[in-house]
């Protein structure tokens, strides 16, 4: 059964899964840990009217930005708009719906979705527009706003290593939203940098157990772009 999870590429992974108007979770933080090939597969498919749940919407010319530019996204549920000028332009023009979340709240809503917890309470956002229309209750003398879980028809994630059972390991900051999203999709598809044989992964190092992953494939290459490269001048040694 496990080997049936492995497919050749993004197109094969997405086959029979996509439909207009669906909700998709896409892993990544900035451009770190983005499922590059699966996003490209969504672009090629032409699927539209999407609701995308992701920390941000890529950067100019890369990542989820390509779907935005192609008119495939109807709504974003995010925590950061960043330097995405297209995102700002479409939103201000009324062509893109936006549900903006505090970043920790977004992460917890996704985690709650994967854990089967319909709602939770948090102090974050109390007394602000974030709390508008949401129940507020008092616990131990403090007000807390109720936030609902987030779940998706499809979760697309990117990992460092994976095995035929779908067990995944993420590398450093590319771990970000990917593990939580992998648990909160009705269907979860993973792309990995390296596909290893069954039993090659140390079980104690696995971040996403294979039970959550329906399909996976090894990506041929990754750009791993950096949004902002900050360096300091090299100090010449004094002889």
TrEMBL record:
Keywords carried by this UniProt record: Transferase
Source organism superkingdom: Bacteria
Cleaved signal peptide residues: none
Any one GO molecular-function label of the UniProt entry: CoA-transferase activity
InterPro entries, A to Z: 3-oxoacid_CoA-transf_A, CoA_trans_fam_I, NagB/RpiA_transferase-like
Name of a matching Pfam family: CoA_trans
Alphabetical list of NCBIfam families matching this protein: pcaI_scoA_fam (TIGR02429)
Protein name per its UniProtKB record: Succinyl-CoA--3-ketoacid-CoA transferase
Organism expressing this protein natively: Rhizorhabdus dicambivorans
């Amino acid at each position: 059964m496990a080997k049936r999870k492995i497919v050749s590429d993004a197109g094969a992974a997405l086959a029979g899964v996509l439909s207009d108007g669906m909700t998709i979770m896409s892993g990544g933080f900035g451009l770190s840990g983005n499922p590059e090939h699966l996003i490209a597969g969504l672009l090629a498919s032409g699927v539209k009217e999407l609701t995308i749940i992701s920390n941000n919407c890529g950067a100019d010319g890369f990542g989820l930005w390509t779907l935005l530019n192609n008119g495939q996204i109807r709504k974003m549920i995010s925590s950061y708009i960043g330097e995405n000028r297209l995102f700002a332009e479409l939103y201000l023009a009324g062509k893109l719906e936006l549900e903006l979340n505090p970043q920790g709240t977004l992460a917890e809503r996704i985690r709650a979705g994967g854990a089967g917890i319909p709602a939770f309470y948090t102090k974050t956002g109390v007394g602000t527009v974030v709390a508008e229309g949401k129940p507020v209750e008092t616990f131990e003398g403090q007000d807390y706003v109720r936030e609902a879980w987030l779940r998706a028809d499809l979760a697309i994630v990117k990992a460092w290593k994976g095995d035929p059972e779908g067990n995944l390991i993420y590398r450093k900051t590319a771990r970000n939203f990917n593990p939580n999203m992998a648990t909160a999709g009705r269907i979860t598809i993973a792309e990995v940098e390296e596909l290893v044989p069954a039993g090659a992964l140390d079980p104690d190092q696995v971040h996403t157990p294979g039970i959550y992953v329906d399909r996976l494939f090894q990506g041929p290459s990754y750009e791993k772009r950096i949004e902002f490269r900050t360096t300091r001048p090299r100090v010449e040694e004094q002889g």
